[in-house]
Amino acid sequence: MKNKKVKNIALFGMMVALAFTFSYLESLIPFNFGVPGVKLGLANIVVVIALYTMKPRDAFFIAIVRVFLAGLTFGNAYSIAYSLCGSVLSFTVMYLVKKTKLSIIGVSMLGGICHNIGQIIVAAIIMKTIRIAYYLPVLLVAGLVTGMLLGIVARLTVNKVEKIQKSM
Predict the structure, then answer these.
(1) Are residues 76 and 126 in contact, defined by beta-carbon separation less than 8 angstroms?
(2) Which of the pair, 102 or 28, is modelled with greater confidence?
(3) CB neighbours of 7 closer than 8 A, spacing ≥ 6?
(4) What span, in angstroms and rounded, lies between the C-alpha atoms of 80 and 82?
(5) How many CB atoms lie within 10 A of CB 33?
(6) Given CA atoms 65, 71, 76, 79 in this order, what sign does their dihedral have?
(7) What's CA 18's distance to the chain center, in Å?
(8) Percent of the chain's residues with pLDDT above 70
(9) Which H, E and C letters describe 32-96, residue by residue?
(10) Which residues contact 154 (CB under 8 A, 6 or more apart)?
(11) What's the pLDDT at 32?
(12) How many CB atoms lie within 10 A of CB 147?
């Protein structure tokens, strides 16, 4: 039993490190989609994979720890606030929808959309205007597309992670 707990802790640490690494890589590569603020969200691949291969609590903490690590390393208080709200809303929706028959790609797409909705909510509060919501349709499309791409990668990866877990 103790050995399994140690392995779970090691897996958790590796997932956090991988999510943080993806955040770092994304900060280095200048993705320009022609829309300010749109990112691929590479670290969310790890969160989606963790949601399907680990306890939900562990997947949630991976998402939150990654937000704080990346925010403290590459961002500021505002980037943490935006990302934290987006991550919490995204994870909550993905967790709830995962219980349905929706595919991992669909779950990831909803996660991408909800992440952007969470960020718009924070932006409206910080900027003290609801007018920022006019930007929402652009972000919803971006969240849908990036969520689909990340979901495809996650779907291809989940089975491999499960095989590794079984061999541990």
Answers:
(1) no
(2) 102
(3) 168
(4) 6
(5) 13
(6) negative
(7) 12
(8) 94
(9) CCCCCCCCCCCHHHHHHHHHHHCCHHHHHHHHHHHHHHHHHHHCCHHHHHHHHHHHHHHHHHHHH
(10) 45, 48, 49, 52, 104, 105, 108
(11) 63
(12) 28
CB 144 within 8 A of CB 38: no
Q: Is the dihedral of CA 27, 109, 99, 92 positive or negative?
A: positive
pLDDT the model gives residue 35 = 63
In degrees and rounded to multiples of 5, residue 101 shows phi and psi of: -90, 5
User: 73: how many CB neighbours lie within 10 A of its CB?
Assistant: 11
Whole-number pLDDT of residue 155 = 93
pLDDT of 40 reads 83
What are the tokens at 50? 């963790």
Asked whether the predicted pLDDT for residue 1 surpasses 60, the reply is no
Query: Which structure tokens are listed for 71?
Result: 């925010």
> For the chain, how long is the longest CA-to-CA vector?
54
